[in-house]
Design a protein that fits this description.
By secondary structure, the protein is an alpha/beta fold. It is built from 11 helices and 5 strands, in the order H-H-H-H-E-H-E-H-H-E-H-E-H-H-E-H. The chain has a 5-stranded parallel sheet. Helix 8 links the parallel strand 3 and strand 4. Helix 2 packs antiparallel against helix 5 and helix 8 packs parallel to helix 10. The protein is globular, with a radius of gyration of 23 Å. The relative contact order is 0.15. The structure holds adenosine-5'-diphosphate and magnesium ion (MG). The site of magnesium ion has 4 residues, from helix 5 and strand 3. Adenosine-5'-diphosphate (ADP) binds next to helix 5 and helix 11.
Length: about 240
């Protein structure tokens, strides 16, 4: 308002605009700017590794994936109801892309989101514990409406790391939402979490109220690189050996 009041006042004077109309325009400008700033701040705070949206997501690449159900992740109802979501599928099938696209949309709707890889989250938790500030980190995570944990399963954790991650998941249960992506089907999560009991308890909480998506299909990354290879003009080099 400070930046714009003078200019708008001069405009209003030349147009003989009544005072309430001037005030309304000035206030609208302020509200628009604040909303945009708040969205930008939420997106920054979320820490997305890339900015990918659903408008560039090719649903025909995964024909068995229910498109409308996936797009519902961009609406805030499931987060307001403390549901979880899991995207399970092989490498390059669009899990990070979809998780990011959902997170970005939710940031715009006022949802506080945090995006983190499972490995980084565990490291963060372990470090915080060693430095006696675990409670503070857990409280920080608790203020986030949607915690996106990407790439669960690529690395297994130490016993302590697995327990800390379990604690985060358990504390969010029915209070806050989680979106987890994993290359591992649930049956193999025991190898990440060490111990059948902890894995079963964790899966119980995660999948109780959960939208589950099977992202398995051909790797999009792989397919695109094969396409690019096919489209390249043939090399003038001698024939490759069989
Ligand atoms: P994942 O996290 O499952 O390993 P990514 O989401 O990182 O896979 O996808 C790998 C690359 O392929 C990214 O650049 C992503 O944008 C792209 N990609 C994957 N699936 C699709 C899709 N269905 N439509 C458009 N791009 C896709
Ligand atoms: Mg990924």
């Amino acid at each position: 308002m400070l930046a714009e009041h003078d200019k708008l006042a001069r405009e209003a004077a030349t147009r003989d605009e009544p005072y309430p109309a001037y005030l309304l325009r000035l206030t609208e400008l302020e509200v628009t700017a604040r909303t945009a700033n708040a969205i930008a701040a939420r997106i920054r705070a979320a820490g997305f590794p890339v900015h990918k949206e659903f408008d560039t997501f090719d649903f025909t690449a995964l024909p068995s994936l229910p498109k409308q159900k996936v797009l519902e992740l961009t609406r805030r109802e499931w987060v307001d109801q403390h549901f979880n979501a899991c995207l399970i599928g092989g490498s390059g099938t669009g899990k990070t892309h979809a998780a990011t696209a959902a997170g970005l949309s939710l940031c715009r709707l006022g949802v506080r989101v945090r995006f983190v890889t499972a490995a980084n989250l565990v490291t963060e938790l372990e470090t915080a514990q060693q430095e006696h500030r675990l409670d503070r980190l857990l409280a920080q995570l608790d203020r986030v409406d949607l915690l996106i944990v990407d790439e669960l399963g690529y690395l297994s954790f130490s016993r302590v790391g697995a327990e800390l991650l379990f604690q985060v998941f358990a504390e969010r249960y029915e209070r806050r939402s989680l979106l987890v992506t994993s290359n591992l089907p649930f049956g193999e999560w025991g190898s990440v979490f060490q111990g059948e009991r902890m894995t079963a308890a964790l899966l119980d909480r995660l999948t109780h109220r959960c939208h589950l998506f099977d992202m398995n299909g051909e790797s999009y990354r792989f397919r695109e690189s094969m396409k690019a290879k096919d489209e390249r003009p043939p090399k003038a080099t001698p024939k490759a050996k069989k």
